[in-house]
Amino acid sequence: MRTYTGPTVAGGTATIKCPSWCVTDHAYWDDAADDCFHQSDVLELAVPRDRIPGTRPLPPSLGTSLRLHSTDPLPSAAIIWLELDERSDHGVELNLAGVDKLLAAVDSYRAGLVELRSLLAGIDAERRNR
Hints:
Layout: E1 3-7, E2 13-17, E3 37-39, E4 43-45, E5 62-69, E6 78-83, E7 91-94, H1 96-128
Antiparallel strand pairs: 1-2, 3-5, 4-5, 5-6, 6-7
């Protein structure tokens, strides 16, 4: 397990242990050891751009990471950060119940997308056979 020794908000020094999934370089950011966030790798969803070959790829449409406050023991100190665009400061914090609601919405969205894909495949096949 990685540790980080750094300044505290009050001007002292403290050492914190990073969870195994934390990828934050706390020393690089000169984080206050008693007031920083552990963060996982970002899980990104990029929408493919297949209509115009050779064009610049779109930035990821959605990014998600796990964040945990370094010293706050409350459940609310652990969140999923959902980035809503390529700027990491535009997002929303989700607790466990919020993630469950998002997963239900994603499942529903996926089911609808599968249905639309089936309709698209039928149209595509019909037009190719003309």
